[in-house]
Amino acid sequence: MPSFNSVAVIGAGAWGTALAGVAVRAGRDVVLYARSAESATRMTSSRQNPRLPGTQLAANLEITNEIAQAARAEIILIATPAQHLREAMTALAPHLKKATPVVACAKGIEHGTHKFMTEVIAATAPDATPAILSGPSFADDVARGLPTAVTLAAQDEGLARALVQALGSSTFRPYHSTDIRGVEIGGAAKNVLAIAAGIAVGRKLGASAQAALTTRGFSELARLGLACGARTETLVGLSGLGDLILSCSSLQSRNFALGIALGRGAPPPKGKLAEGVFTAPVLIELAASQNIDMPVSQAVAAILGGAITIDAAIEGLLTRPFKAEG
Ligand SMILES: NC(=O)C1=CN([C@@H]2O[C@H](COP(=O)(O)OP(=O)(O)OC[C@H]3O[C@@H](n4cnc5c(N)ncnc54)[C@H](OP(=O)(O)O)[C@@H]3O)[C@@H](O)[C@H]2O)C=CC1
Ligand SMILES: O=C(CO)COP(=O)(O)O
């Protein structure tokens, strides 16, 4: 099993900054790459990141604006928004050493190409080794050192185990897996379903409706996952069901919070990344291409696209023909 000592995190947002802290706590040499030179300089001197307020950056965390410096690390964690992954990888790829593990930490599916995060990595850096980290984990909780567990998948089990060894600690517990596709489908779909759960809460449909919607949401996530080759144990694990439960029930979730605002007819929270907005249209295109019925995700995409009102979407879901559970 390889052993890794250095980690670079690309993307100095909330999640990238929290993950840099994780790697520092695990005892690695860590560099955090910010695409803005000004932000890198400011974070270096203030030891604060406005995208993750209240977190003191570790004294031994290096912050850089030099992509070539970041690329020298033995492990790369890439934590930009999903739709920015290609751009970030395109800048990084020419500097990477052969076979460097590049761990996708974003949750989404690329517009236009329908590519999952590790597929974007493979397309932009064919000599790198893609992996994925996903699960129920708010950046703020992770940064505060609260206990968190996630799934970390690579095609090669030995590599997945080595990445877990390099990043894991008593408060950040990654479970290794080789089911890359299962992990990335769960992370992408749960954001769309969290918007649906938020809408139900915002419309005051009650706790029973919230539980029903979350469960039926899981059912369609699992249907798509299985059609795309994911394994059941992954779909019911941390990166699937685990993250869905968290995001469909916690006000900390930006996707859930957006749904609540939509349900109330209030303006969406400003300046907050809600990946489900970008994932919804791609997710339903992907589902259609696989002949998979995803009524909840379809309703979210239609609401976000302005094709249907919230009340009409709710009515549509509630008047679907009765059927066997599954
Ligand atoms: N926040 C969370 O709790 C969690 C988030 N995630 C996932 O992580 C991903 C990022 O989310 P989050 O960190 O919260 O988002 P933020 O909005 O906090 O930050 C995104 C960061 O990405 C940077 N960025 C954008 N494009 C590039 C690029 N081409 N190269 C380098 N950096 C780039 C932005 O830079 P700039 O500041 O210059 O705009 C910004 O710092 C999402 O897919 C999200 O679903 C996963 C688990 C938990
Ligand atoms: O992915 C997350 C928790 O696992 C973060 O959720 P939000 O992006 O909805 O805030």
From TrEMBL:
It is an enzyme of class 1 (oxidoreductase). One of its GO terms (cellular component) is cytosol. Pathway: Membrane lipid metabolism; glycerophospholipid metabolism. Substrate binds at residues 107, 254-255. It comes from Bradyrhizobium canariense. It holds the Pfam family NAD_Gly3P_dh_N. Gene3D superfamilies: N-(1-d-carboxylethyl)-l-norvaline Dehydrogenase, domain 2, NAD(P)-binding Rossmann-like Domain. This is Glycerol-3-phosphate dehydrogenase [NAD(P)+]. The keyword Lipid biosynthesis applies. One of its GO terms (molecular function) is glycerol-3-phosphate dehydrogenase (NADP+) activity. The active site is at 190 (proton acceptor). It is found in: Cytoplasm. Belongs to the NAD-dependent glycerol-3-phosphate dehydrogenase family. Its EC number is 1.1.1.94. The keyword Lipid metabolism applies. Residues 7-158 form the Glycerol-3-phosphate dehydrogenase NAD-dependent N-terminal domain. InterPro entries: 6-PGluconate_DH-like_C_sf (IPR008927), 6PGD_dom2 (IPR013328), G3P_DH_NAD-dep (IPR006168), G3P_DH_NAD-dep_C (IPR006109), G3P_DH_NAD-dep_N (IPR011128), NAD(P)-bd_dom_sf (IPR036291). Signal peptide: none annotated. NADPH binds at residues 15, 35, 107, 139, 254, 273, 275. NCBIfam families: PRK00094.1-2 (NF000940), PRK00094.1-4 (NF000942). The gene is gpsA. Residues 179-314 form the Glycerol-3-phosphate dehydrogenase NAD-dependent C-terminal domain. GO terms for biological process: carbohydrate metabolic process; glycerol-3-phosphate biosynthetic process; glycerol-3-phosphate catabolic process; glycerophospholipid metabolic process; phospholipid biosynthetic process.
